[in-house]
Amino acid sequence: MNKEILYDKNFCKIYNSKEDNYITIKWFGFPRSNDFRDACNAVIEYMKQYKTGKLLTDNRNAKIFSVDDQKWLNSEWLPIAIKSGYSCSATLINDDVFIKAAVKNITNHRDQKIIKTKLFTKEDEAISWLKQI
Predict the structure, then answer these.
(1) Which is higher by pLDDT, 20 or 101?
(2) Dmax of the chain from CA atoms?
């Protein structure tokens, strides 16, 4: 798989999957609010730059996202992302109950007619689903 690193920080990495035309954001630990928001905003710019609305979010190594950041993501970031072409979200999660709750809080606010959203525990299944959409 040919992935180009676009954004490389200790709290997350963002990749462009050239062959399959999707962006990946991989979270690590507990990002500070400004870091979380900067990375999410970078995703919008990369989706526009690479002309894709598909996003693979890997939360398997994340600790938790603050409630304020979850609210910001749904109320401020999401409308801008949709206007920028965001249309499909595959999200990788582990067994951490806090991450599961945070991810469900975020994804439950999405209209499936606008953004197709699905949760996964295995990366190959998430990628396969993104390729089919």
Answers:
(1) 20
(2) 35
Q: Which residues contact 1 (CB under 8 A, 6 or more apart)?
A: 17, 19, 20, 127
Domain limits for position 87: 3-132
CATH code at position 16: 3.30.750.24
Return the residue matching tokens 């991810």.
103
How many distinct structural domains can be found in the chain? 1
CB 66 within 8 A of CB 99: no
Q: How far apart are CA 91 and CA 99, in angstroms?
A: 11
Task: Look at the pTM and tell me if it is higher than 0.85.
Answer: yes
Q: Which of 70, 4, 5, 61 is nearest to 40 (CA)?
A: 70
Take residue 79 and report the two structure tokens written for it. 């409308």
Q: Kindly state the DSSP code that residue 73 receives in the 8-state scheme.
A: I
More confident residue, 96 or 42: 42
- Whether 109 shows a pLDDT value over 70: the answer reads no
* Closest by CA position to 79, among listed 52, 102, 110, 108: 110
Burial of 112 (0-12, 13-18, 19+ CB in 10 A): exposed
